[in-house]
Structure formats: C-alpha cells, structure tokens
Design a protein that fits this description.
Elements lengths: L21 H14 L3 E8 L15 E4 L13 E5 L2 E3 L10 E8 L4 E2 L5 E4 L1 E8 L1 H11 L14 E2 L11 E3 H8 L12 E5 L4 E3 L4 E4 L5 E3 L5 E3 L5 E3 L5 E3 L6
Parallel strand pairs: 9-11, 11-13, 12-14, 13-15, 14-16, 15-17
Antiparallel strand pairs: 1-3, 1-5, 2-8, 3-7, 4-10, 5-8, 6-7
Helix pairs in contact: 2-3
C-alpha cells in the first residue's frame, strides 16, 4: 500500500489507481477527525431566577436558543460562556445565589471571542444547573465522554484574526474540582489534550497531544502526538508522533 493508501475507504490500493484522490483522502481524514468531537461543554452563570444579562430566562434543563442570533464576535445577539469552563472569569457571577449552568454546544455552532476561553453560540442544551462546585465537578467528570479516547480532553476553538484579550482572573473547573475533592478522586492532570482550529489557525501542544487544523495552519506538538492538518500547513512534532497533512505542507 502506498503512503496515501486508502484501505478501509475503497479497499487497499495506491492513490494513482484509486478513484479517491490524495486531496480528497486528506480532506476525508480531516473531516472524520473533527467528527470525533462534535460537541463540547460550556459553562456560564445566570441570576438566581435563571435570567442572563440580556433578560433571557434559561431552562433548568433542555434546549435554549437565541432568537436574535448574529454571527459576530460581540457578546450581544447570542449565547456566551466558557468552553470547558476554562478561561477568563470576567463574565461569571460570583454572587452567592448565582446559578451555574453547564450546557452542551455543537462545535460547528461556536464562535471564538476575544476573551480567553469565551465562545458564542446560537443554541445549546442545558445539562446541569447548580452552584460553582457542582458545575465544575460536572464538567471535570464528563469531559472524557466527549472524546474518542478515554482520557479527558481540552478543546480550543481558535479562529484566525481574533486576538485573545487577557482580562480578570483565570477560572478553571479542574482547579475547583480538585480543591473540592482533595481525596484524589479526580485526575490531577489530563493525559492527552485535543485541540481543534479553523483554517489558518495556530495550535501548540505538549507531549501526548492531538492537534487537528484546517488549511494553511501551523501545528507544533511534543512526543507521542498526532497532528492532522489541511493543505499548505506546517507541522512539527517530537518522536513517536504521527503527522497527516495535505499538499504543500511541511
């Protein structure tokens, strides 16, 4: 089988004799990899009556949608929150009676905002409502359910052009959960991280990382990592790593 053999797609064959071109083969791998993580958990807070800053009353469970959705990087005209509960704390209410909401959002619906960890989306499914501790614990214990591997994952939606703005303190559900569970029931660190990016994005990962990026992207990872990138991308990885890239890539 050649370097770009397509066993499992059209039988074992070389690309030059296969109806699927190398370009289509790479595109298929890229799309299949993204499908392994179709949804993610997002954390946000509301007032004790479940109303957000725009007056929308969130349900205790089930679907919620913004009726005035606009595809912009502004907080208005959309639902917002912290992807995987990690990032700036600027938009989380620390009031004692605040309701902490965990919702499930399709990655395809997300827009990365300028603030660290913040994403915007038109619709979501509320899966947990509680306090800071319970919401943090929910995300920490359910992250693995959203990955193709048994290890917990961290997904970063990186959009080109947008600059991340550092504001307020950093919030991380993993830190809250470990503080509440000093008995060691939760893992102290995530063995593998999964990062996804759109076209032209830049991803960096440590050892045991899995990076998936679009065309014209740059990926850098440590040992034992998997990198998948589109055409014209640059990928660098340590020993025992696998790289899959399209034409014009290095």
């Amino acid at each position: 089988m050649s370097v770009f053999g397509c066993e499992g797609l059209h039988g074992s064959c070389a690309v030059k004799h296969c109806s699927m071109s190398a370009a289509a083969f790479i595109k298929r791998i890229y799309e299949d990899a993204l499908m392994t993580l179709e949804k993610a958990l997002v954390l946000r807070t509301c007032a004790n009556n479940m109303a957000d800053h725009c007056g929308l009353v969130w349900p205790a469970t089930g679907a919620v949608e913004c009726k005035h959705w606009q595809f912009t990087r502004k907080h208005e005209n959309g639902l917002v929150g912290l992807l995987w509960g990690a990032g700036t704390s600027a938009f989380l209410s620390m009031h004692a009676d605040a309701r902490w909401i965990v919702c499930e959002v399709a990655l395809a619906d997300m827009i990365g905002l300028e603030e660290s960890g913040m994403v915007k989306f038109p619709r979501a499914e509320v899966v947990h409502v509680g306090d800071k501790s319970s919401a943090s614990h929910f995300i920490s214990t359910h992250q693995a359910d959203y990955a193709s591997t048994p290890a917990p994952v961290v997904a970063n939606i990186v959009l080109p052009v947008a600059e991340h703005v550092v504001s307020h303190e950093v919030f991380d559900v993993a830190l809250i959960s470990r503080a509440d569970n000093s008995g060691g029931l939760l893992p102290a660190a995530t063995p593998q991280s999964l990062q996804t990016a759109t076209y032209g994005g830049t991803l960096s990962g440590e050892n045991n990382s899995r990076l998936i990026a679009g065309y014209g992207s740059t990926e850098t990872a440590g040992n034992n990592s998997d990198l998948i990138a589109g055409y014209g991308s640059t990928g660098t990885a340590g020993s025992d790593s696998s790289l899959v890239a399209g034409y014009g890539s290095t």
